[in-house]
Amino acid sequence: MNTFNQGRYSVYLRPISYIIDLTIINSLAILYFFKSVEPAIFVLVISISWIVISTLSKFYAVFRFTREVAIMTLVFRQMALFTLVVFAFSGFYYDLDILPKTIFKYIGCVFVLVTLFKFTLYYLLQKYRASFGGNFRVTAILGKNKQTQALERFFNDKPEYGYSHTKTFNFKNITEEGLQDCFQFLLEENVDEIYCSLSQLSNSQLRKVIDFADNNLKILKFLPDNKDIYSKKLKYEYYNYTPILSFRNIPLEDSVNQFIKRVFDIVFSTAVIVLLLSWLTPIIAILIVLESKGPIFFKQSRNGFNYKEFDCYKFRSMTPNKNANLNQATRGDQRVTRIGKFIRKTSIDELPQFFNVLFGDMSVVGPRPHMVSHTNMYAKRVDKFMVRHFVKPGITGLAQVSGFRGEIETDKDIINRVKFDIFYIENWSLLLDIKIVTQTFMNIVNGEDKAY
């Protein structure tokens, strides 16, 4: 199995930008302009308002290919909406007697500093990419025509945008052997992003490229033309003046969504550890030790985000055996102890994984991780299985609450699990996570046939 490497960079830039911008708007207000306001109330109201506005206006949706004029448009839109919020705040707290003239001075200072910081960060990143070759993504282009040549020039002539271009393949009269050589090159060069000209590929070649990208954790984007493509919700972007289509839009690639999900994970896992595991662990530990010799916890290597291996923790529910990392538990499995049957039926054995969530290896909700041996097997047998590794694995997931948890008895089980996992990845929201957690709890209370 190849070592998969997908370009996920600068995941902390957006949260850092939030922190700095919030520091600017709150410090200016309290220290220089609105000294009579209650600091705690102002910081809470204005900070929440800024975050909500920026999320709705996509103020922090600035990418390496975003043009300066687009950034300036975002700044003006954000400041216009923020001005309305500040006036609304001063009107609600009318006794503060904040004059409109003071508000406009404040907004002007915020505008200057936020704009200055935003463009400073933008140009510093460009300088870093151009001078030091950092923060880059390795690219390849499939198909040769005027559009792809323009994109190739963009990659090569503008190193400040952070793209390292390897090769442009001519797909005219390409053979099946040539296509496989192309795929091998993409793997050997650790290409992060594949740009595909729709006019140069046949439908069968296009399907093979899509399958290759999905199964090897490569980001696939298209250069559009008048040719029909699959009926999916595609993400439309511009690199300089070249239009690009992204085949798969993953909400959790957005830093804001990552931050929201991580906060949810930390709060939820901390609550479970403090309120439940703190007193339940000693009881379970005593029961496990009384029945059979061996460790209290069971550690197993599994594949997580970006195919990285991590140690997944559980309460030990079986007698120690050599096949624990190879064979999945089956109905009536003789390895399962009496206390093991109970904790597996009630899913108590999974609770230590909340430490995995706290450590950042897992999420509360996401595709369930498989044993490394099973992952290697399914990656070869099941189409698009590797797509599950675009996000962190979860303690529970959409597939599990939809009837596809536990033992994989037939190929249909794993195929449907992959379908539900991909749907979750492409349609993530915090409300969906809460719904899955709630449904998981209800399933535990009602009992599940495949919990054994």
From TrEMBL:
Keyword terms, alphabetized: Membrane, Transferase, Transmembrane, Transmembrane helix
E.C. code: 2.7.8.31
GO molecular function, one term: undecaprenyl-phosphate glucose phosphotransferase activity
Transmembrane segments: 12-34, 40-63, 75-94, 106-125, 266-290
Subcellular location field: Membrane
Domain of life: Bacteria
Residue ranges of domain Bacterial sugar transferase in the record: 261-445
Stated name of the protein: Undecaprenyl-phosphate glucose phosphotransferase
Family: Belongs to the bacterial sugar transferase family.
Membrane topology (UniProt): Multi-pass membrane protein
